[in-house]
Design a protein that fits this description.
Three copies of one chain form a homotrimer. With about 160 residues, chain A is α+β, with helices and mostly antiparallel strands. Chain A is built from three helices and six strands. Chain A has helices at about 5-25, 45-50, 60-75, and strands spanning about 35-45, 55-60, 80-95, 100-110, 120-135, 135-145. The radius of gyration of chain A is 15 Å and the shape is globular. Chain A starts with a helix and ends in a 13-residue tail after the last strand. Chains in contact: A-B, A-C, B-C.
Chain lengths: ~160, ~160, ~160
């Protein structure tokens, strides 16, 4: 499909800003990458392929996104960990009637524990609907399909 | 080297489509990314650096690519696993007399087992010859140089 | 921020050439990606976030970069290992008064041991100042912020 290169660059910039906000632990900025009504969910690949809607994490609207971050900040007393996202294979699939673009891509997150141990924390794909929100591209919907069913949802940062 | 940006984007689109076909387990689509006479091989870095031609997997022509997928589908009774490719460092090295472009890039594949365990399954580089096949870019040759000698060739999906 | 696409492509080419030089073990080419006065350092994320300047590795000027490679070549008698870099999330942050561009990005390095075992060797971010040095982009400064404090500095290749 023939995608405008400047649009593609804008999409990649959105992804890049999103990743650095999380990896920098600027989680309070994370909801800003979504529209007011933006949806975010994390679903296992297994459920996704079976068409089962059950999500591990589901936030509907910017308020829920902000609540999630507040809850994380208040609840989490675990050892400090750091996360490093990498993304690739960005594919612009098309635009819906409302102008929202469907985009998919792959991601990997490496987690580093306080003692220095590193491991793959999550990998899978992003399935996004992206819209132009008053001049800035934002996620109307971001579905994170994770390959592994084994994830500690209590600890999970935004992916 | 000065590469036309739209050509570069077309190459990256080929890589992206290829990756998603494999990660989606749409392996029957995999041969479509090669020309009729397309060659595919997986070789260890050790053999590659010593100039030894012995490949772990060698497919010469689209028929052999399709045979390989059929064989995999029939033979493999192992637990379901999923794969997540990431690619980077795409370098267009030049064009040969026949118009085929030489391209190299790096890749990593994370495998997720049925129980949720994730690990690096393979990493290394792609050495490609890419041609315009009636309007679509395809692999005339894809050589996958894997860093590790320790790979179970019975289980190996297309990389 | 609105970045010229051709500039962005030049930056990505610099990153790509850099990565392939290291992964190919062409370490003698590594200093060529820096200006004469180019600085290179590896610092832990912990120290970086606390504003502590202590670096694990610090090279100030091209001579020190070359010395480091010579020392590695002479000293290292360990088993052969290979490295595979991947990079993503390239963000051009702006240009300073002297024209140097500030760029950040993420990286991951997978190490493969001689027996075939693969693991995440390092991950984190690059914080770069990049200048046009007589027509070629080069690093005036590359700061590698690694997520893990657990790294064997004796063994460390350029990241």
């Amino acid at each position: 499909m023939n995608t405008d290169q400047s649009l593609r660059l804008r999409i990649e910039n959105l992804f890049t800003n999103y990743v650095h906000a999380i990896d920098d632990d600027r989680l309070e900025d994370w909801p800003d990458y979504f529209t007011d009504a933006g949806r975010y969910r994390i679903i296992t690949r297994e459920n996704h392929e079976r068409g089962l809607p059950a999500a591990l994490i589901y936030c509907d609207g910017n308020g829920m996104l902000r609540d999630r971050i507040s809850a994380m900040r208040n609840a989490n007393v675990f050892d400090p960990q750091t996360y490093c996202h990498s993304g690739s294979a960005v594919q612009v699939l098309g635009a819906a009637d409302d102008g929202a673009m469907s985009v998919r891509s792959n991601f990997t997150v490496i987690r580093t524990m306080n003692d220095g141990a590193m491991s793959v924390f999550a990998c899978g794909r992003y399935l996004d609907r992206i819209t132009d929100d008053d001049g800035a591209l934002k996620f109307a919907e971001r579905t994170v399909v994770i390959d592994s069913r084994r994830i500690d949802t209590l600890l999970v940062i935004p992916l």
